Amino acid sequence: MLTVLEPEGLYPDTALEQEILGPGVRVIRGGGRGGVEELPDSLCAEADGLFIFRHWLPGSQLHRFPKLKAVVRMGVGYDRLDRPALAARGVKVCNVPDYGTTEVADHAMALALTLRRGIALHHDLQRADPPAPWQYLETPLVQRAETQNFGILGLGRIGTAVALRAKAFGFRVVFFDPFLPNGVDRALGIRRVRGLEELLAQSDVLSIHTPLTRHTRGLLDEAALRRLPRGAVLVNTARGPILDLDGLAACLRDGQLAGAGLDVLPEEPPKEPVHPLLAAYRAREPWLTGRLIVTPHSAFHTPQAFEDIRRKSAETMRDVLVEGRNTNVIAADAD
Known about the structure:
It contains twelve helices and twelve strands.
């Protein structure tokens, strides 16, 4: 009999997983809520399959899993897994790329519109003591959508969903993605540019939708952000380490960027002492009033999306571990 571990205890039972995986698989829930390090060696020694959601799986822990054959990352990104170490042991690594697409796209648009319409700004000002006057405010944040280029970095499932939403709101949508074939722009009725610098130079709003790889880590540093038009808005619902927070802080402080919406941070959850930008945000320093929105990596979440994660993760584990398929398997040499 095969054994699959779900160490984080995400759901109240294992009934759905057991139904999908079948009678030849034993599903064990919990035992490592704080991390895989908490799992007893005896349990690790039995695991043929492992679900990973919030935890990290470093190579230093793999010797405790001598039977491990498949790891399913219960999400799109797989930077929490030591893929070279897993590949060296012949362990298949999978993700779940097709959940939460609409939620993340909605969230990215909500952040962009909340900033560009001055909603966060007026919200902050109207609850101040004393409240601001009952009138509009002239600010670089507030601009008409149809006068703005909405830049998308990475046109995968989520990037495409954002492009369609931005287009519906009247933005002029432009994207950069070197991995897509010719003609995608024509199919969607949006514009494509050939390089990152060209995208940055044109993006009044920039929404990040690229995966975190060795090539995209630190991709948007201060120099890159200063290529955006002055007064631009930046949204990141992808991965925190793609964006340099020092550069973001500098560009917000001097007005190069009018605003930013972040659902992800380089360190999650943030630990004390937190980055100075996050500290200023939490302290409600006046220079950030209405200009920075932070959400706790929650863009993916609805009750429906959380159920999708559960079902699709179990289906992927069944396909790979039980049936020997390659559903959602990440190639060992993938970036």
